[in-house]
Amino acid sequence: MQRETLMPTYMKNFSCIGSACEDSCCVGWRVTLDKKTFKNYKNLKHPVLSKQLHNSMKRIKNETSSDSQYAYFVMDDKKRCPMLHESGLCGIQATVGEQMLSSTCTTYPRVINRVDNIYEMSAKLSCPEVARMVLLNPDGIEFEHTESDMNSAWGLRDDFLNSSKHENGENLFWDLRVFAIEIIQNRTLYLSDRLIFLGIFINKVQLLIDNGEYDKIKSVIEEYKIKLNNDEFVTSLSKIHSNPELQLRLVVELIQKRNDSGGEVPRYIECYVDMYKGFGIQKEDTFNLKELKITYQKNYNSYYVDFMEQYGFVLENYLVNYIFESLFPNVKNKDVFKQFTRMSVLYSMLRIHLVGIAGYHEGLSEEMMVKVIQSFARVVEHNMSYLNSITDLLQQNGLDTLAHVVSLLKE
Fold first, then answer.
1. In 16-52, which positions are buried (b, 16+ CB within 10 angstroms) versus exposed (e)?
2. Sign of CA dihedral 37, 41, 46, 47
3. Do 143 and 11 meet the contact criterion of CB atoms below 8 Å apart?
4. Which of 30, 32, 86, 109 could form a disulfide with 123 if both were Cys (CB 3.0 to 4.6 A apart)?
């Protein structure tokens, strides 16, 4: 079905590489089934597949159950979907066709949002093929407004129907998001300074939202557009002091917390172990913060910073893709600074991973960058309970202020 669509141009060239994928989406994750697909599988008449489906499906019978999250496949002892053939191909698709796949399997790695009558299609970087296409584009992410063939089986993640509504600032969504992307893609600034600039701006917007002064937000956007081109203001960002102790203590705690909650993805575990080795940490629960700071600085100066001078666009592309697919800043939720804080922590965690891994390998490469970011996205970004716990933890420790978030970001 043809739909008016806004999408990054990389989506025009994306197609699943199937069994050639180095990190199958059918391994390590629980594959959920919507109610319609579950019933189709229950009623399927096939001499082999029917029995296999009946023995592999399990209903979700708690408060999380819904028509879209109705059942799931019980993974085998290797954490593989029981429908996955050794060849790496899906047994359901191979036997009865793609039209019998669940919405989850049909949609991933696509992210489909709808803003008013316009569909927005992007993709998650947890897919290796998507990660390569997005991250390794030195020209940055561009967008295209077009007519696109939208599969009716693709699931809709978010529906933003009132972007023209003035009462609670929804009409400002487009202006805010376009400016956020403009900031992150402004290569006259270091990437961490772009994020800090965005944080200062979003904090100002949050104050206006808290006071119900939505009518002033457009003028603030114009004010900060001028500041973005003001040499004196931009120079002031470079004078902000970093707080490496806070960065290391907080980010390592967050990484440990995520690993404890179960990141059973071999590709990510390899990165996680390399990071710890790169920091000279022998045991996760015992490390000397002073020694860690010294090692971090050495890795950063010797192996990380020069590589990122050439490949800074990789993390820029990560952030722009995140902004677009997450509908940041979503003014409907009235917590735009909290959304920014979450994105900042994800960026800071990624940077810690990369600096540690750069130290272990005595350098970085394009392949390493893709592996780290893709596996990180798979383990962290798909776990909503963990993502929510990030901002909760910061709030509980009084670290969710602009000053603390800026010190977390500053290199």
1. eeeeeeebbbbbbbebbbbeebbebbeeeeeeebeeb
2. positive
3. no
4. 109
The answer to whether the beta carbons of residues 26 and 81 sit under 8 Å apart is yes
Residue type, 123: A
Whole-number Å distance between alpha carbons of 163 and 176: 12
Q: What angle do CA 347, 349, 351 make, to 5 degrees?
A: 70
The sheet that has 158-160: what strands, in order across it? 143-149, 2-8, 118-123, 110-115, 158-160
Give the model confidence (pLDDT) of 346-385 as tens digits: 999 899 999 999 999 999 999 999 999 999 999 888 887 7
Cβ partners under 8 Å of residue 101, min gap 6: 37, 90, 92, 93, 153
Give the model confidence (pLDDT) of 208-237 as tens digits.
Answer: 999 999 999 999 999 999 999 999 998 898
* Contact in structure between 352 and 255 (CB atoms under 8 Å): yes
Distance, in Å, from the CA atom of 267 to the CA atom of 269, rounded to the nearest integer, reads 6
CA 98, CA 107: separation in Å to the nearest integer? 11
pLDDT for res 391 = 75
What CA–CA distance (Å, rounded) separates 203 from 299? 32
pTM: 0.92
Nearest to 194 by CA among 203, 184, 202, 204: 184
Show Cβ contacts of residue 276 under 8 Å, excluding neighbours closer than 6 positions. 284, 356
| Cα maximum dimension of the chain | 73
User: What is the rounded CA–CA span in Å between residue 301 and residue 305?
Assistant: 6
The domain spans of the chain are 26-107, 244-409
Tokens 């080795």 map to which residue? 277
Determine contact, residues 336/209, Cβ cutoff 8 Å.
yes
For residue 130, the Cα-to-chain-centroid distance in whole angstroms is 12
